[in-house]
Amino acid sequence: MTDQRLFIDIHAIQSVPPSNINRDDTGSPKTAQYGGVVRARVSSQAWKKAMRDYFREHGELRNVGTRTLEVPRYIADEILKRDDNLTADEAIDRAVKVLNNAGVSTGKDNRVKALFFIGYQQAQELAEHAVNEDYDKASLKSILKHNTATDIALFGRMVADDPSLNEDASAQVAHAISTHAVQTEFDYFTGTDDLAPADNAGAGMLGTIEYNSSTLYRYANVAAHELVSQLGDDKDAAITALKLFVEAFITSMPTGKINTFANQTLPSAVVIVGRSDRPINLVNAFETPVKSREGYIDKSIDKLRSEFEKDNKFVESPAFTLTLNVPELQESHEAGTFGALLNDLDEQLRRNLK
Protein backbone atom coordinates (compact mmCIF):
# COMPACT_ATOMS: atom_id res chain seq x y z
CA MET A 1 0.00 0.00 0.00
CA THR A 2 1.32 3.48 -0.82
CA ASP A 3 1.36 6.41 1.58
CA GLN A 4 -0.85 8.36 -0.82
CA ARG A 5 -4.51 7.50 -0.37
CA LEU A 6 -7.32 7.81 -2.87
CA PHE A 7 -10.94 7.05 -2.03
CA ILE A 8 -13.51 6.93 -4.82
CA ASP A 9 -17.06 7.95 -3.81
CA ILE A 10 -19.92 7.03 -6.16
CA HIS A 11 -23.33 8.67 -5.69
CA ALA A 12 -26.42 7.99 -7.78
CA ILE A 13 -30.05 9.11 -7.85
CA GLN A 14 -32.25 6.43 -9.41
CA SER A 15 -36.00 6.21 -9.74
CA VAL A 16 -37.59 2.75 -9.62
CA PRO A 17 -41.25 2.27 -10.62
CA PRO A 18 -43.64 -0.12 -8.82
CA SER A 19 -41.44 -3.11 -7.98
CA ASN A 20 -40.24 -5.52 -5.31
CA ILE A 21 -36.56 -5.90 -6.16
CA ASN A 22 -35.42 -6.90 -2.66
CA ARG A 23 -37.90 -8.53 -0.29
CA ASP A 24 -37.77 -9.63 3.33
CA ASP A 25 -38.64 -13.01 4.86
CA THR A 26 -42.38 -12.29 4.47
CA GLY A 27 -42.14 -11.28 0.81
CA SER A 28 -42.59 -7.57 1.50
CA PRO A 29 -40.25 -4.99 -0.10
CA LYS A 30 -37.51 -4.11 2.38
CA THR A 31 -37.93 -0.79 4.18
CA ALA A 32 -36.09 1.28 6.78
CA GLN A 33 -36.89 4.10 9.18
CA TYR A 34 -34.85 7.22 8.41
CA GLY A 35 -35.60 10.81 9.25
CA GLY A 36 -38.77 9.73 11.08
CA VAL A 37 -40.48 8.15 8.06
CA VAL A 38 -40.52 4.78 6.30
CA ARG A 39 -38.18 4.56 3.29
CA ALA A 40 -37.89 1.98 0.53
CA ARG A 41 -34.64 0.04 0.98
CA VAL A 42 -32.51 -2.22 -1.19
CA SER A 43 -29.84 -4.05 0.77
CA SER A 44 -26.18 -3.77 -0.13
CA GLN A 45 -26.06 -7.58 -0.39
CA ALA A 46 -28.72 -7.57 -3.12
CA TRP A 47 -26.94 -4.94 -5.18
CA LYS A 48 -23.50 -6.52 -4.67
CA LYS A 49 -24.87 -9.83 -5.99
CA ALA A 50 -26.13 -7.99 -9.09
CA MET A 51 -22.70 -6.36 -9.47
CA ARG A 52 -20.84 -9.68 -9.20
CA ASP A 53 -23.14 -11.13 -11.86
CA TYR A 54 -22.34 -8.08 -14.01
CA PHE A 55 -18.61 -8.75 -13.53
CA ARG A 56 -19.07 -12.25 -14.96
CA GLU A 57 -21.25 -11.21 -17.88
CA HIS A 58 -19.59 -7.99 -19.00
CA GLY A 59 -16.10 -7.82 -17.58
CA GLU A 60 -12.93 -8.87 -19.31
CA LEU A 61 -11.49 -9.92 -15.96
CA ARG A 62 -10.62 -13.61 -15.95
CA ASN A 63 -9.82 -13.85 -12.24
CA VAL A 64 -13.22 -13.43 -10.60
CA GLY A 65 -14.37 -15.37 -7.57
CA THR A 66 -16.96 -18.06 -6.90
CA ARG A 67 -18.77 -18.13 -3.57
CA THR A 68 -20.18 -21.55 -2.79
CA LEU A 69 -20.53 -24.42 -0.33
CA GLU A 70 -19.49 -26.73 -3.17
CA VAL A 71 -15.82 -25.72 -3.28
CA PRO A 72 -14.59 -29.36 -3.21
CA ARG A 73 -16.73 -30.20 -6.25
CA TYR A 74 -15.58 -27.00 -7.99
CA ILE A 75 -11.93 -27.98 -7.48
CA ALA A 76 -12.62 -31.65 -8.28
CA ASP A 77 -13.98 -30.58 -11.67
CA GLU A 78 -10.71 -28.74 -12.32
CA ILE A 79 -8.74 -31.82 -11.21
CA LEU A 80 -10.61 -34.04 -13.68
CA LYS A 81 -9.82 -31.59 -16.50
CA ARG A 82 -6.14 -32.24 -15.76
CA ASP A 83 -6.26 -35.99 -15.07
CA ASP A 84 -9.11 -37.96 -16.60
CA ASN A 85 -7.72 -41.22 -15.23
CA LEU A 86 -9.09 -40.31 -11.82
CA THR A 87 -12.63 -41.21 -10.81
CA ALA A 88 -15.01 -38.53 -9.59
CA ASP A 89 -14.72 -39.87 -6.04
CA GLU A 90 -10.91 -39.79 -6.19
CA ALA A 91 -11.01 -36.20 -7.46
CA ILE A 92 -13.32 -35.18 -4.61
CA ASP A 93 -11.01 -36.88 -2.08
CA ARG A 94 -8.01 -34.95 -3.40
CA ALA A 95 -9.97 -31.68 -3.48
CA VAL A 96 -11.03 -32.16 0.13
CA LYS A 97 -7.44 -32.94 1.14
CA VAL A 98 -5.96 -29.78 -0.48
CA LEU A 99 -8.69 -27.64 1.07
CA ASN A 100 -8.26 -29.13 4.54
CA ASN A 101 -4.49 -28.69 4.37
CA ALA A 102 -5.00 -25.09 3.22
CA GLY A 103 -7.03 -24.44 6.37
CA VAL A 104 -10.58 -24.78 5.01
CA SER A 105 -12.76 -27.33 6.84
CA THR A 106 -15.19 -29.63 5.06
CA GLY A 107 -18.04 -31.78 6.32
CA LYS A 108 -18.99 -35.42 5.78
CA ASP A 109 -21.06 -34.34 2.78
CA ASN A 110 -17.87 -33.06 1.09
CA ARG A 111 -19.03 -29.44 1.29
CA VAL A 112 -17.36 -26.60 3.15
CA LYS A 113 -19.10 -25.60 6.37
CA ALA A 114 -19.87 -22.03 5.32
CA LEU A 115 -20.01 -20.19 2.00
CA PHE A 116 -16.43 -19.78 0.82
CA PHE A 117 -15.23 -17.20 -1.70
CA ILE A 118 -12.46 -18.63 -3.89
CA GLY A 119 -10.74 -16.98 -6.85
CA TYR A 120 -10.52 -18.61 -10.25
CA GLN A 121 -6.70 -18.67 -10.23
CA GLN A 122 -6.69 -19.99 -6.66
CA ALA A 123 -8.93 -22.90 -7.68
CA GLN A 124 -6.68 -23.64 -10.66
CA GLU A 125 -3.56 -23.77 -8.49
CA LEU A 126 -5.18 -25.95 -5.81
CA ALA A 127 -6.26 -28.39 -8.52
CA GLU A 128 -2.73 -28.48 -9.89
CA HIS A 129 -1.36 -29.36 -6.44
CA ALA A 130 -4.01 -32.06 -6.05
CA VAL A 131 -3.09 -33.66 -9.37
CA ASN A 132 0.55 -33.73 -8.27
CA GLU A 133 -0.46 -34.96 -4.80
CA ASP A 134 1.41 -32.04 -3.27
CA TYR A 135 -0.29 -31.45 0.06
CA ASP A 136 2.25 -29.14 1.68
CA LYS A 137 0.21 -27.00 4.08
CA ALA A 138 2.31 -23.84 3.77
CA SER A 139 2.18 -23.92 -0.03
CA LEU A 140 -1.56 -24.57 -0.13
CA LYS A 141 -2.36 -21.82 2.36
CA SER A 142 -0.16 -19.43 0.41
CA ILE A 143 -2.32 -20.03 -2.69
CA LEU A 144 -5.41 -18.76 -0.85
CA LYS A 145 -3.53 -15.67 0.36
CA HIS A 146 -2.30 -14.60 -3.09
CA ASN A 147 -3.73 -14.11 -6.58
CA THR A 148 -6.77 -12.48 -5.01
CA ALA A 149 -9.73 -12.39 -7.37
CA THR A 150 -10.97 -8.90 -8.21
CA ASP A 151 -14.37 -9.28 -6.58
CA ILE A 152 -12.84 -10.86 -3.46
CA ALA A 153 -10.52 -7.85 -3.15
CA LEU A 154 -13.46 -5.47 -3.59
CA PHE A 155 -16.02 -7.21 -1.38
CA GLY A 156 -13.79 -9.11 1.05
CA ARG A 157 -13.77 -12.65 2.44
CA MET A 158 -14.30 -13.94 5.97
CA VAL A 159 -13.13 -17.45 6.92
CA ALA A 160 -14.25 -18.48 10.41
CA ASP A 161 -12.04 -21.61 10.39
CA ASP A 162 -8.84 -19.67 9.72
CA PRO A 163 -8.87 -15.85 10.11
CA SER A 164 -5.47 -15.69 8.40
CA LEU A 165 -7.36 -16.37 5.14
CA ASN A 166 -9.62 -13.34 5.65
CA GLU A 167 -9.47 -10.64 2.97
CA ASP A 168 -10.38 -7.07 3.89
CA ALA A 169 -12.84 -5.43 1.49
CA SER A 170 -11.58 -2.36 -0.36
CA ALA A 171 -15.16 -1.39 -1.28
CA GLN A 172 -18.17 -0.39 0.82
CA VAL A 173 -21.72 -0.41 -0.57
CA ALA A 174 -24.54 1.32 1.32
CA HIS A 175 -28.11 0.10 1.50
CA ALA A 176 -29.98 2.19 -1.06
CA ILE A 177 -32.87 4.13 0.50
CA SER A 178 -35.60 6.30 -0.97
CA THR A 179 -35.14 10.04 -0.71
CA HIS A 180 -38.79 10.32 0.39
CA ALA A 181 -41.35 8.48 2.47
CA VAL A 182 -43.00 5.44 0.89
CA GLN A 183 -46.06 3.33 1.50
CA THR A 184 -46.12 -0.33 0.49
CA GLU A 185 -49.08 -1.30 -1.69
CA PHE A 186 -50.67 -4.61 -2.73
CA ASP A 187 -51.30 -5.94 -6.23
CA TYR A 188 -54.20 -8.38 -6.23
CA PHE A 189 -53.93 -10.71 -9.20
CA THR A 190 -55.75 -13.69 -10.69
CA GLY A 191 -54.58 -16.35 -13.12
CA THR A 192 -56.96 -17.76 -15.69
CA ASP A 193 -57.11 -21.44 -16.57
CA ASP A 194 -56.86 -21.61 -20.38
CA LEU A 195 -58.60 -25.00 -20.49
CA ALA A 196 -61.35 -24.20 -18.01
CA PRO A 197 -64.94 -25.00 -19.15
CA ALA A 198 -66.63 -22.11 -20.94
CA ASP A 199 -69.24 -21.82 -18.21
CA ASN A 200 -66.58 -21.50 -15.48
CA ALA A 201 -65.76 -17.81 -15.02
CA GLY A 202 -63.66 -18.44 -11.91
CA ALA A 203 -59.93 -17.85 -11.69
CA GLY A 204 -57.44 -20.71 -11.74
CA MET A 205 -55.51 -19.02 -8.96
CA LEU A 206 -55.34 -15.73 -7.12
CA GLY A 207 -52.87 -13.97 -4.90
CA THR A 208 -51.23 -10.68 -3.88
CA ILE A 209 -47.78 -9.17 -4.39
CA GLU A 210 -46.50 -6.27 -2.30
CA TYR A 211 -44.64 -3.47 -4.03
CA ASN A 212 -43.61 0.15 -3.75
CA SER A 213 -42.05 2.78 -5.99
CA SER A 214 -39.22 5.10 -5.05
CA THR A 215 -36.44 7.46 -6.01
CA LEU A 216 -33.34 5.92 -4.44
CA TYR A 217 -30.12 7.47 -3.18
CA ARG A 218 -27.36 4.95 -3.86
CA TYR A 219 -23.79 5.20 -2.56
CA ALA A 220 -20.59 3.14 -2.65
CA ASN A 221 -16.92 3.84 -2.17
CA VAL A 222 -13.62 2.12 -2.94
CA ALA A 223 -10.27 2.60 -1.23
CA ALA A 224 -8.42 2.62 -4.53
CA HIS A 225 -4.98 2.59 -2.91
CA GLU A 226 -5.93 -0.57 -0.97
CA LEU A 227 -7.21 -2.22 -4.14
CA VAL A 228 -3.87 -1.61 -5.88
CA SER A 229 -2.11 -3.33 -2.98
CA GLN A 230 -4.55 -6.26 -2.94
CA LEU A 231 -4.04 -6.82 -6.67
CA GLY A 232 -0.29 -7.18 -6.29
CA ASP A 233 0.59 -3.49 -6.82
CA ASP A 234 -0.75 -3.77 -10.36
CA LYS A 235 -2.06 -0.25 -11.03
CA ASP A 236 -3.48 -1.07 -14.47
CA ALA A 237 -5.41 -4.04 -13.06
CA ALA A 238 -6.78 -1.84 -10.27
CA ILE A 239 -7.91 0.86 -12.72
CA THR A 240 -9.64 -1.75 -14.88
CA ALA A 241 -11.34 -3.16 -11.77
CA LEU A 242 -12.40 0.30 -10.55
CA LYS A 243 -13.97 1.23 -13.88
CA LEU A 244 -15.81 -2.10 -13.98
CA PHE A 245 -16.96 -1.55 -10.37
CA VAL A 246 -18.41 1.85 -11.31
CA GLU A 247 -19.99 0.45 -14.48
CA ALA A 248 -21.54 -2.44 -12.55
CA PHE A 249 -22.74 -0.20 -9.71
CA ILE A 250 -24.45 2.20 -12.12
CA THR A 251 -25.96 -0.20 -14.64
CA SER A 252 -26.76 -3.41 -12.71
CA MET A 253 -30.14 -4.13 -11.14
CA PRO A 254 -31.14 -6.80 -8.57
CA THR A 255 -33.51 -9.27 -10.17
CA GLY A 256 -36.21 -9.68 -7.50
CA LYS A 257 -39.66 -9.92 -9.18
CA ILE A 258 -38.16 -8.28 -12.29
CA ASN A 259 -40.25 -10.44 -14.64
CA THR A 260 -43.35 -9.15 -12.89
CA PHE A 261 -42.46 -5.45 -12.82
CA ALA A 262 -39.80 -4.96 -15.57
CA ASN A 263 -38.19 -2.23 -13.44
CA GLN A 264 -35.18 -1.89 -15.74
CA THR A 265 -34.23 1.72 -14.91
CA LEU A 266 -30.90 3.55 -14.85
CA PRO A 267 -29.76 6.38 -12.57
CA SER A 268 -30.85 9.89 -13.49
CA ALA A 269 -27.73 11.46 -12.02
CA VAL A 270 -24.23 10.27 -11.07
CA VAL A 271 -21.45 11.94 -9.08
CA ILE A 272 -17.98 10.37 -8.74
CA VAL A 273 -15.56 12.02 -6.33
CA GLY A 274 -11.88 11.26 -5.69
CA ARG A 275 -10.71 12.17 -2.18
CA SER A 276 -7.39 11.77 -0.41
CA ASP A 277 -8.63 12.20 3.17
CA ARG A 278 -11.76 10.07 3.61
CA PRO A 279 -14.89 8.82 1.81
CA ILE A 280 -18.16 10.73 2.38
CA ASN A 281 -21.71 9.35 2.20
CA LEU A 282 -24.13 12.19 1.28
CA VAL A 283 -27.25 10.49 2.69
CA ASN A 284 -27.71 13.38 5.16
CA ALA A 285 -29.12 15.27 2.17
CA PHE A 286 -32.27 13.19 2.57
CA GLU A 287 -32.62 13.01 6.36
CA THR A 288 -35.48 15.45 5.80
CA PRO A 289 -37.57 13.49 3.28
CA VAL A 290 -38.27 15.04 -0.10
CA LYS A 291 -41.91 16.07 -0.47
CA SER A 292 -43.37 16.65 -3.90
CA ARG A 293 -46.45 16.14 -6.09
CA GLU A 294 -44.37 16.74 -9.22
CA GLY A 295 -41.77 13.97 -8.95
CA TYR A 296 -38.77 13.37 -6.71
CA ILE A 297 -35.81 13.17 -9.09
CA ASP A 298 -35.04 16.86 -9.67
CA LYS A 299 -35.52 17.78 -6.00
CA SER A 300 -33.32 14.86 -4.94
CA ILE A 301 -30.55 16.02 -7.28
CA ASP A 302 -30.85 19.56 -5.88
CA LYS A 303 -30.50 18.24 -2.31
CA LEU A 304 -27.55 16.06 -3.29
CA ARG A 305 -25.81 19.08 -4.83
CA SER A 306 -26.45 21.16 -1.70
CA GLU A 307 -25.18 18.44 0.68
CA PHE A 308 -22.02 17.94 -1.39
CA GLU A 309 -21.17 21.61 -1.08
CA LYS A 310 -21.97 21.67 2.67
CA ASP A 311 -19.85 18.59 3.40
CA ASN A 312 -16.91 20.00 1.47
CA LYS A 313 -16.59 22.68 4.16
CA PHE A 314 -15.48 19.97 6.65
CA VAL A 315 -12.90 18.13 4.54
CA GLU A 316 -10.09 18.65 2.08
CA SER A 317 -10.98 19.66 -1.46
CA PRO A 318 -11.62 16.63 -3.68
CA ALA A 319 -8.86 15.52 -6.02
CA PHE A 320 -11.53 15.42 -8.73
CA THR A 321 -15.31 15.49 -9.13
CA LEU A 322 -16.98 13.97 -12.18
CA THR A 323 -20.70 14.24 -12.90
CA LEU A 324 -23.36 13.03 -15.28
CA ASN A 325 -26.61 15.01 -15.35
CA VAL A 326 -25.58 17.12 -12.34
CA PRO A 327 -24.56 20.41 -13.98
CA GLU A 328 -23.17 23.32 -11.99
CA LEU A 329 -21.85 21.19 -9.14
CA GLN A 330 -18.99 22.88 -7.29
CA GLU A 331 -15.66 22.48 -9.17
CA SER A 332 -16.83 19.47 -11.15
CA HIS A 333 -16.45 18.21 -14.70
CA GLU A 334 -19.72 17.27 -16.41
CA ALA A 335 -19.58 14.38 -18.89
CA GLY A 336 -21.90 14.17 -21.89
CA THR A 337 -22.43 10.40 -21.69
CA PHE A 338 -21.75 7.54 -19.31
CA GLY A 339 -19.00 6.33 -21.63
CA ALA A 340 -17.36 9.76 -21.45
CA LEU A 341 -17.69 9.67 -17.65
CA LEU A 342 -15.78 6.36 -17.54
CA ASN A 343 -13.09 7.81 -19.84
CA ASP A 344 -12.78 10.83 -17.52
CA LEU A 345 -12.50 8.47 -14.54
CA ASP A 346 -9.74 6.50 -16.27
CA GLU A 347 -7.81 9.72 -16.88
CA GLN A 348 -8.19 10.89 -13.28
CA LEU A 349 -7.21 7.50 -11.82
CA ARG A 350 -4.03 7.42 -13.89
CA ARG A 351 -3.23 10.94 -12.70
CA ASN A 352 -4.07 10.54 -9.01
CA LEU A 353 -3.56 6.86 -8.16
CA LYS A 354 0.01 6.09 -7.14
Task: Give a quick summary of the entry.
The N and C termini lie close together (9 Å). This protein has eleven helices and twelve strands.
Give the arrangement of secondary structure elements.
Elements: E1 7-19, E2 31-34, E3 37-42, H1 44-58, E4 65-68, H2 71-82, H3 88-102, E5 116-119, H4 120-131, H5 137-145, H6 150-155, E6 171-173, E7 176-178, E8 185-191, E9 205-223, H7 224-230, H8 235-251, H9 258-261, E10 269-275, H10 297-311, E11 320-324, E12 333-334, H11 338-352
Parallel strand pairs: 11-12
Antiparallel strand pairs: 1-9, 1-10, 2-3, 3-7, 4-5, 6-9, 7-9, 8-9, 10-11
Helix pairs in contact: 1-8, 2-3, 2-4, 3-4, 3-5, 8-11
Describe the structure.
By secondary structure, this protein is of the alpha+beta class. It has eleven helices and twelve strands. The strands form two sheets. Strands 1, 2, 3, 6, 7, 8, 9, 10, 11 and 12 form a ten-stranded mixed beta sheet that branches. The chain has a two-stranded antiparallel ribbon with strand order 4-5. A hairpin with a 2-residue loop joins strand 2 and strand 3. The mean pLDDT is 94.
